[in-house]
Each structure stands twice: as structure tokens, then as C-alpha cells.
Specification:
By secondary structure, the chain is of the alpha/beta class. About 35% of the residues lie in helices and about 30% in strands. Helix 1 packs parallel to helix 2.
């Protein structure tokens, strides 16, 4: 039995509200995170990701009380990211109901953080998010919500992340984010072949076919999307029925 492919709505949180932009800017309001989370949980989402998108930039911690409210409203696995930089930060979020945490900027600045978190909480708990932009044909890792370019290459960093024990990689193609023009399947396929941990595709979902393509062409293990779900352009239950028809293994 092949592993089922996961559909993951993403709540980008700013000032306690769900927001969505294009290429990480021009954010607009998309609703109450607790209500949206409950809706997705009831409508067949496999997991939920909650990203406090301005926590790192504003140098503050993720909204633990909001995490608790979301966790109480849903019955699916729940990943939380944004502003996480220590074992203590992770402990607080797990105690507030998160099942996994996603680290990004802090992992690049201090890669041993990945090892420390894995040692303390286990591989299955630790997701490393990688935001990358294609610059002159090379995928370059960016930090602080995509605002700060690094010297790191996506594929080198992904290999290191996997070697340090991360359980999953959440790869957002910044050029595709919010464009609804499809996922970065070429990079995803290369990434999936390179690492032996699940890769979550993020950035570019605009149609049911885009999801199908990222599973079949990009070999992604899961697909994450925001605006197409928030603004009801795609219903998760319909998406899954269509994927099943196309032979993509999903949990109905």
C-alpha cells in the first residue's frame, strides 16, 4: 500500500489573524485562525500548519495562547512555526497542543539546534522549513520570512538538514508563492530524490491539477496551500476525490 499523499492547509498568522499575500508581500486578511482551523479539520485536511509569519522579524515568540485555542478546535496533526529558536520555545508549543514544530531562520543561524531538538523531542516532531528563490538558475535559501538572502543552496542545506535528523522538510518556492501558477516541481523532484525524509511542497497552488502534478511530477509527499483554501476556490473534499480519481493515494 503506497503512503497516502497529504493535503495541508496553512494558516499564516499576523497580529492574531490569518493573512495571505503574493511572493510573501501584499498581505490581505483571510479570517479567524481558530474558525478556519476547525473548518479544515472537519473538511478532510490531513494536517494543519500554523506559521506566525512576523515572529522572527519582530523578534518575539509564537503566540502560544492562540496555538492552544487552535489545538482545542481540531483533531488532526498540527505543526507550528515562527520565532522558534530554543528547546524551551518548542516545549511551550508542544505543551500547548502542537504535534510538530517548524524551524527556519534559527536552524540556518545555528544548525546544531536541529540536532538538539531532535535529541530532546524526536525526529517526528521537527520540521525544517526552507524558503528559497531561484536566482540565476540556483535555488538560494532566504530567511526572516523571505527577506534576507543567504549564501546557502537549497539542495546542500536540505541534505544537511536531513543528516541532522529533521523529520520533514517544508520547501516553499518563493517565486511561486501566492501566484497560483503551480508548484516548483522540478526542484521538488530533485529534493525528493536527494533526501530520505518527506518533502512538503509549498508555494503556487492554484488548481486541482497543480496538486496532482506536485505528487506525480514533483514526487512531493504532501502539498501545502493557503489562499485557494481560505478563499474557497478549492474545497479539500473535492480535491481529494479528484486526486483519487487520478490515481493519487489520499485519505478520504
Amino acid at each position: 500500500m503506497p503512503l497516502t499523499k497529504r493535503i495541508i492547509p496553512c494558516l499564516d498568522i499576523k497580529n492574531g489573524r490569518t493573512v495571505k499575500g503574493v511572493n510573501f508581500v501584499n498581505l490581505r486578511d483571510a479570517g479567524d485562525p481558530v474558525e478556519l482551523a476547525k473548518l479544515y479539520s472537519e473538511n478532510g485536511a490531513d494536517e494543519l500548519v500554523f506559521l506566525d509569519i512576523s515572529a522572527t522579524e519582530e523578534k518575539r515568540k509564537t503566540l502560544a495562547n492562540l496555538v492552544l485555542k487552535v489545538a482545542e478546535a481540531i483533531n488532526i496533526p498540527f505543526t507550528v512555526g515562527g520565532g522558534i529558536s530554543s528547546v524551551q520555545d518548542v516545549a511551550v508549543l508542544l505543551n500547548n497542543g502542537a504535534d510538530k514544530v517548524s524551524i527556519n531562520s534559527a536552524a540556518v543561524k545555528n544548525p546544531t539546534l536541529i540536532n538538539n531538538l531532535v535529541a530532546k523531542f524526536g525526529t517526528q516532531c521537527i520540521v525544517v522549513a526552507i524558503d528559497a528563490k531561484n536566482i540565476n538558475g540556483e535555488w538560494i535559501v532566504h530567511l526572516v520570512g523571505g527577506k534576507v538572502p543567504t549564501q546557502l543552496n537549497l539542495f546542500d542545506w536540505a541534505k544537511e538538514v536531513a543528516a541532522r535528523g529533521a523529520g520533514e522538510i517544508l520547501f516553499t518556492a518563493m517565486d511561486n508563492d501566492g501566484t497560483k501558477a503551480g508548484f516548483a516541481n522540478e526542484a521538488l523532484a530533485k529534493l525528493s530524490a536527494l533526501v530520505n525524509i518527506p518533502v512538503i511542497a509549498s508555494g503556487g497552488a492554484g488548481s486541482i491539477q497543480h496538486f496532482s502534478d506536485t505528487f506525480t511530477v514533483g514526487n512531493a509527499d504532501a502539498a501545502l496551500a493557503a489562499s485557494v483554501f481560505h478563499f474557497k476556490e478549492i474545497e479539500i473534499s473535492e480535491l481529494k476525490k479528484e486526486l483519487e480519481k487520478q490515481g493519487v493515494p489520499v485519505r478520504i
